[in-house]
Amino acid sequence: MKHVIIGGLLALGLASPAAAVTSGLVAFYDFESGDASDASGNGNDGTVVAGVTFGATGYAGSMGAEFTATGGLSGINTGIDINPAAMPALTMGGWFRADTINNGKVLSHDNGGFDRTLGLDTRGSVSGVDWTAFSGGGVVDADSVAQDVIAGAWQHVAVVYDGAASALYVNGTLAESFTATNGTSIWSLFIGTNPSFNEDFTGGADDVFVFSRALSANEIGSIYTDGITITPAVPLPAGFPLLIGGLGVLGLIRRRS
């Protein structure tokens, strides 16, 4: 009976055999609805500012977002406060396809102080343009040739901000460890641009995620390999509360007998 009950609870989404990678998930933009809605269920729907379209051009042929440079404020404003005071530890990333190799940023709330940012940059690069993160004191870049930005190719990029344990990942592999000393920005998180400097990303984005904790290397690798699966809540059957109540009474009777 114990196994049947637990199995039923698992089927109803009321119990879990292990913690999921979705623990701490703040927002997930899979663009499957053809807009910037938050698929995590947390209500952090994004607002399209400019230069964004949606279509079946995402990673592996799924729905995705396409970004073009506008010369002004553009991208998607998520409205999420990622300042260190609001979110001491942060992990953000997704699948990105850079069509133009420039200094475009894919995730940023930069206000001019090398605030929390993920994107392309030439500074510190040994090969021209690298996937990079802002550390608060400068630019941290992925120098490995195997992790170079490839024009027109989908690449999985993520950054973990966690003080001295911060890290940049490309295609599920650690690219660089660093110490983050990021300050405070006036901006919320944008997808597809640096809001202060119009460093617009030109290309595609898909399965963009934001976590309010520092994901481990294994968790980053798991997301790279398996993605993020959002399991919708299953409505309780009409008689389920009575079933639980009856099981409780049955257990009480058995203990007393």
From TrEMBL:
Q: Hey, what's the signal peptide range on this chain?
A: 1-20
Locate the transmembrane regions by residue number.
234-253
Q: Which InterPro entries does the UniProt entry name for this protein?
A: ConA-like_dom_sf, VPLPA-CTERM
The domain of life is Bacteria
Record keywords: Membrane, Signal, Transmembrane, Transmembrane helix
Keyword Ligase applies: no
Q: Which NCBIfam families match?
A: VPLPA-CTERM (TIGR03370)
Protein name, as recorded: VPLPA-CTERM protein sorting domain-containing protein
Which species is this UniProt entry from? Answer: Pseudooceanicola nitratireducens
